[in-house]
Amino acid sequence: MSAKRLGIGFVGSGFNARFHMQGLRFVRDADVLGVWSPNQKNAASAARYARELDVGEAKAYKTITDMVADPAIDAIWLNGPNQARIENVEEICDAVTSGKGTLKGIACEKPLARTVAEAKQVIKLVEGAGIMHGYLENQYFAPQVAVGHDLLWRRGAATTGAPYLARAAEEHGGPHAPWFWNGAQQGGGVLNDMMCHSALVVRQLLTPPGKPLSSLAVKRVTGRIASLKWSRAPYAAQLKKSSGVDYTKTPSEDFASVTIEFETPDGHTAIGEATTSWSFVGPGLRLSAELLGPEYSMRWNTLDSGLDLFFSRAVKGKTGEDIVEKQNAEIGQMPVVVNEAIAYGYEAEDRHFVRAFLGKEKPLLTFQDGLDVVRILMHAYKSAELGKTLEYSERGVDKFVPQVAQGTWNPR
Question: Domain ranges in the chain?
């Protein structure tokens, strides 16, 4: 590839990888050239999808090593399932350290890993191979979040003082693939799956633009988890039929809330409140955030989309997700999220990391930020299990594995 363009190879072929491919339609200096999946049929399908989007002449590879070894591949977008993270990273890094291939960068989808120990292993492997890394957190780059964050700090905080309370939530009716529902495979339930978004967003909003997220020190974490819907008998039976997991025996949480107490550089307290749910009932995926300061505030809700459609009972059609991600209905009044890849931040995120790996920008989020998120999530799980607020410690959860991930959690 020319030094002015980045050849991207995807590890993973599912829903998330395809969202990134949609985002890359608007990135001018990158091409999707490869896809690997343990299921070759899925890899071929995703490669065909990339070609149909006209984002590159993608082809399916038989192994990750083959893809890394191809001189056309400059960077890897790591979008495989959580349980395969270490194995995938090991193969990528081995291909580089053994001299089979070279990479300008590796971008990893959230969460970085299932535990702090796994996250540290990922960082050790990637940095040991000398590969630049970026942490893929799309909501950090969502246009409304990024613009609102900048404007409130530039106009409100600059004249009346820093913000003190941020809220964020991600809610829908449940994930796409069976492995998400399996606590042992995924590493938990909705807290591990989606709180990684919301916990980072509240920290982002409370941090001055241009400053590292770590400048806002985490002091205390309070977590709560519950199985509100999917362990009820009729829904547990539905889930067992569709995904092969039995929530009457080994449930994962479908609701989680976390309160994070931060200390600002000038010694003030700031609070982040985050909520995530697989038991939300509404039109579809709802992302939301708020930021409050002494004399200002912001509000973001993706279902306030600016376009609503109404379908009467007489309208018949197939179920789908052509109106909104995780769509839950086909009749009634429905908000339409136009171009979700842009609205949710994938396009801006992908553009940024392409430019970072081409040496044009410094990565805004690295695997260290991903590790910090995992630490917060593990504190939240531990807090929920103990039923008390925890003092935050960077080494306090190094060996911790949530009960949900161990299959021993009892929601009652």
Answer: 6-110, 139-310+338-358+370-406
Per-residue pLDDT tens for 4-23?
A: 899 999 999 999 999 999 99
Topology annotation, domain 139-310+338-358+370-406:
Dihydrodipicolinate Reductase; domain 2 (3.30.360)
Which runs of consecutive H residues, i.e. helices, occur in 113-189?
A: 116-128, 143-151, 158-160, 178-181, 183-186
Burial tier of 330 (Cβ tally within 10 Å: 0-12, 13-18, 19+): middle
Average pLDDT, the chain: 96
CATH topology of domain 6-110: Rossmann fold (3.40.50)
pLDDT score for 2: 46
> What's this model's pTM, rounded to 2 decimal places?
0.95
Q: Are 276 and 169 in contact (CB under 8 A)?
A: yes
Q: What is the mean predicted confidence (pLDDT) over 297-320? A: 92
d(CA 306, CA 403): 42
Largest CA distance in the chain: 62
